[in-house]
Design a protein that fits this description.
Elements lengths: L2 H4 L11 H9 L4 H13 L1 H11 L4 H60 L7
Helix pairs in contact: 3-4
């Protein structure tokens, strides 16, 4: 799976740049830029909730650490789900594999019995 898809801040917001969001939180934006961000937040409930959560973080350095931790956790969960799907897929087909093996075994036994009967006819009539 592409690691770019797992990075939650990489190209995650098409309406606004992530650096602008960080500057908004740090209070580095002009009044017009703040108004633009707040307008986008009003239109997008997910962004609004995310900003509220980010505002609760006291230290901006912690935000970067939290994002890295979230990305690691997300990668682990996605890898775990992929492994579970692969295991499920094998379990799904286990009956098919068993049936194919059993059928092959029966065909081999039938061939062996027919071969023995044809080459040793005295076994049939004592």
């Amino acid at each position: 799976m592409n690691n770019d898809l797992l990075n939650i801040l990489s190209n995650s917001n098409k309406d606004i740049d992530n650096q602008v969001l960080m500057d908004y939180l740090a209070g580095k934006l002009s009044v017009e830029q703040k108004h633009e961000v707040e307008k986008l937040m009003a239109d997008n409930h997910f962004m609004n909730d995310a900003m509220e959560g980010l505002e609760q973080v006291k230290d901006p350095i912690n935000i970067e650490l939290l994002v890295e931790q979230i990305n690691r956790d997300l990668r682990k969960k996605i890898d775990k789900k992929i492994k579970l799907k692969q295991r499920r897929r094998l379990k799904q087909y286990s009956w098919i594999y068993f049936a194919a093996f059993l059928l092959l075994l029966l065909v081999m036994i039938a061939w062996f019995v027919i071969y023995r009967v044809q080459h040793q006819p005295h076994l049939i009539h004592p």
